[in-house]
Amino acid sequence: MFKKLGSLFLAFLLLVASTYPQGATSKIRSAASLPATCTSSSANVAADIIVVSSVFYKCGPAANTWSRLDGQDAVNVWSASQRFKGPTPFTDITGYGARAVNSLPQTRATISAGSHNASLASPSTLQNGDGFTIQGAGSTNTMATPGAPTVTPSIASAGTTTGLVVSTAAASTTYSYKCMVRDKLGALTAAGPATLTTTGQATLGVQTATITTATLSKDVITFNTSTTTPIRVDSRVDVTGTSVSDFDGRYIVATVGSGTFTVKNVGIDSRGIGWKASQYASSSGGTVTYIVSNHVVCPQVMGAWEYFLYGGPGVATFNLIGQSRVNGDTWVETFIDDYGPTYMANQLFPSYVPTTAPSVATNDPLTTTIVSGGGTTSLVLEAAAANSVTGATALFDDGPAILAAATTAAANRSTLFIPPSGFSSYWINSFLLLPNTLNVRQIGNVIESETMELQDSTTWSGDWSANGTAQFGTSSNVFFNTTANPGIYTNGLTLNFSNIGFATSATNGGTLLVMNNVYQGSFDNVTLYTGRGGAAGDYLSAPLVLHSYNAGGNNFHFSRTLFTSGPSQTQTSWTPIFHMPTNQDGSGNPTGGSYFVTCEGCFFNRRGIEVDRSGQIFNFYGGGYRQGGITPFFTFVNNNGFSTIDILLNDFEQDTETAGTVALWSLNGAFANANINMISVNNATQDVNGIPPPFTGNRPGMVWNFGGSMGTLPTRGTVNNFSGTSRTYPYSLSTLVSPAQETHFQLFEPTDFPAGHPLFWDLGQPSNISAGAATAGGSLTASTTYFYLVTAVGVDGGETTSYATPSSSATTTTNKTIHVTWTGVAGALGYNVYHCYANCTLPDGRPRTGNYYFVANTSGASYSDTFNGNPIQPPGTTGTGLVGLNATEIYSPRYITTSPLVSGVSHTATDTAPITADHLYKKPDMDGTYALDLSGTTSTIIGTALTATCDSGTVAIAGAVAGMPVHVSTTDGTDLGGAFNVRASVTTNGTVTIYVCGTGTPPTKAYNVRVIK
């Protein structure tokens, strides 16, 4: 009994030795009760241990005082912190030497190659057992110096930092650049040779130009600018502030001319316009924004982890400008775009990267553990230096301890535990590669200056922490605070994060997570926080980037995940907050693949998601909230072949938006198709033109909308099921009600139109309205400027809207008549003319509501205005039909029916009144007297002896044109006799000549002469 208890007790003493010092031997005995007196032991005196009712007691530390030794009784009560080295119940990093500190212990160190002894410049708070990193004292750098880069003056084709650009026309500004490379551990090459370009644009970064006018023809918008721009085909442009909000959008340029460019396959279509009062085929004013860069591609270097760019305008100083995203075993990315000083300012680079182009290379750091000498200037290190350094930066580093603990945890399938750290943090100052199959529970905060790499089957959770919740976050998060780029790099499958926050203190730039070779993963209650959570100037940060070369099945799940970044809402950044670039094949070449991404209850700030595909399939299902958006929430870009995406947005709220919801862009002649289903999606207005449209760029293949405040829907391919309405009609002929949907349908199945609801096609607007110079006469007010609108009137009595911009003319004291002309439209029965002479237009030139007067209705395309008219407003909504039909009638001023039996044969008719239910009007058809449209008159030739072989006469037939066939027959149907024949032809326009030929005297006959039109 005592032997067993003694062994247990000795095991316990190993844990509590710091509290209860013991002698070389222990005396353990049992007793019914504790003695009244006792002598406390010291380090060199054996202790007396008395067991009373299975509870252990030791004398001390005060004399005659018995202290209970918890841990050996039935219920253990731990009186101090316990550190389990694992595997049960978990593997604690502090059991392997990690310790949290308030501030980073750092100094400068000198060490010789092959030596374990480091000399410090001054004493520090370093302790024995601490991890320790000395810059440049590690493995020898084996990377080659990079060659000269390729520099291409460019414009962004999609999001900035994505590498999707198109070259600009040659300009005349000089720029020069050099590349430098680092490996994973931090070795640097020298900067390579420079490349100089003399064809760069004068200013880099965000550029704008003024839009003068824009016109919509079918689904192509033509924008005209006041100045010539460097915009090229496949440039991305943001159009804002036009006089007609439907023209605003984020587009890819289709064609370019001098001071003009077009975008095509857009959401609005002129063939569907007129179903909403604010829709017009043209607009004026506005701004086009584009982003200019120098696209620099560094030559690939084996072993490179990251590329750095030095240079800028001119050829003098090569200052540090930017850095690429990281390269992995299967990912190649060597480009860096220089967007100019504003966009590139205030980035946070590794402290050991020179700010000017280095001329010599450096080696990897030495990362090891302090064996002895802690607190002095002479340290003995566990590992020897590979290279000599003098006065090199030396840093405290928890990385070695975390790696040792993680190795044990993974080997035993244990849980790696990062315990509480109070107001201190664990510091990682060296590249930390953790093993795969790792389960982590984190409570204490971690600060990184170098990247942590995670591998297959890693689960990282912070749900035991209670460190507060970030603004807009959904749960308390423990934080990784990083100055590394990226903070976390993953290279494997099945990665899961929960209740973790990733944050960077950089004002601008940096990537929190890069996930390489990903296959599937999940983010639950995760915070991704850059730019100090929305700082002005945060143009370049990318909280999350997913890389993949897998051909399919890339499944990612986000739940209550917060993506927050800057810049301010008045600044322009096109960098995605969450980027999924085109898959690669392992050698840097684009390849196909597919993704399936869900985002439930996610929160986004400022910027949105961009997915770049190369003929791939993508599925996105999301719901949540976006605040202060300055880019489309979700952008899908296809740059090769055909790609398709399914998007379901359910319960998604957008607050103070300027950019809308979904953008579809096609580059290099590719085609991006989308099927989009929206349920309870709301867009709160912030744009100068009101609520941004839900879709921009290319028109989706099909949209199912279930309501909400979304902005203008596409005028083609949209079904709106809001308020229980499965399909509505554009207008009532009697009341001109607004539609509940704005769309343009193709019908492939029989369609039922309920009684009383007609089907009709809208008239076009009269165009080219021109008010000529005033002339004498009339009753218009003298010395007044008049503004004119003209509308078309249809057969149903309905009226179109007018052309967007009024035409004007002024009278003097001696002339008071103004002649107005316009270009008419097919199918109009007449035109209504309106004028206004006070407070007539808005600042952008559009007609202002109120103050217009009805002047006249006319059937022609011109009118001379002589009086001040009646105060009747022109309509704001089109509600008239070119051709209409319902259950009882078909009505049109002119319609054409084509026979299905005779190819190319048609019949044209003009009616002065619509066909009614009690009026049967049968047009000539194949069953009637004539299959063709014949017109003509009756004429008589007197039967007298022929004075020549043929006699002739003429008859006038309106509309006859030389070359038209002519048919002649006798009116009584009898023949002239075998000696005679009759023929006729159109000899001049409007005149038919009849010839009677033969010998002798022909009979007196009257003839029907008909021209076949």
Tell me what the structure shows:
This protein has 1013 residues and is mostly beta strands. 4% of the residues lie in helices and 40% in strands. The protein is built from four helices and 72 strands. The strands form twelve sheets. The chain has a 19-stranded parallel β-sheet that branches. The radius of gyration is 42 Å and the shape is elongated. Residues 1-25, 722-746 and 895-934 have low confidence and may be disordered.
Instruction: Give the DSSP E fraction (strand runs of 2 or more residues).
Output: 35-45%
Helical fraction equals under 10%
Largest sheet: 19 strands, parallel
Q: Which radius of gyration do the C-alpha atoms yield?
A: 42 Å
Shape label: elongated
Label the structural class.
mainly beta
Query: Mean of residue pLDDT?
Result: 82
Give a short synopsis of this structure.
With 1013 residues, the chain is mainly beta. The protein contains four helices and 72 strands.
SSE arrangement:
Elements: H1 2-16, E1 26-30, E2 47-52, E3 55-59, E4 66-68, E5 91-92, E6 106-111, E7 117-120, E8 131-134, E9 150-156, E10 165-167, E11 173-182, E12 195-200, E13 205-217, E14 220-225, E15 236-240, E16 249-252, E17 255-257, E18 260-264, E19 282-284, E20 287-297, E21 306-313, E22 320-323, E23 335-338, H2 341-344, E24 366-372, E25 378-381, E26 389-396, H3 399-411, E27 415-418, E28 425-428, E29 432-433, E30 438-442, E31 445-448, E32 452-454, E33 458-461, E34 478-482, E35 488-491, E36 495-498, E37 500-504, E38 511-516, E39 520-524, E40 527-529, H4 531-534, E41 542-546, E42 554-559, E43 562-564, E44 578-580, E45 594-605, E46 609-613, E47 617-627, E48 634-638, E49 642-657, E50 662-666, E51 671-685, E52 695-697, E53 702-705, E54 718-720, E55 759-762, E56 767-771, E57 785-793, E58 807-810, E59 818-823, E60 830-836, E61 853-858, E62 862-865, E63 881-885, E64 890-891, E65 894-898, E66 906-910, E67 934-941, E68 950-956, E69 966-970, E70 980-988, E71 991-998, E72 1005-1012
Parallel strand pairs: 1-2, 5-27, 27-30, 28-31, 29-32, 30-33, 31-34, 32-35, 33-36, 34-37, 35-38, 36-39, 37-40, 38-41, 39-42, 40-43, 41-44, 42-45, 43-45, 44-46, 45-47, 46-48, 47-49, 48-50, 49-51, 50-52, 51-53, 53-54
Antiparallel strand pairs: 2-3, 3-4, 6-7, 6-26, 7-25, 8-24, 8-26, 9-10, 9-20, 11-12, 11-21, 13-14, 13-19, 13-20, 14-18, 15-16, 15-20, 17-18, 20-23, 21-22, 24-25, 55-63, 56-59, 57-58, 57-60, 59-62, 60-61, 63-64, 65-66, 67-72, 68-71, 69-72, 70-71
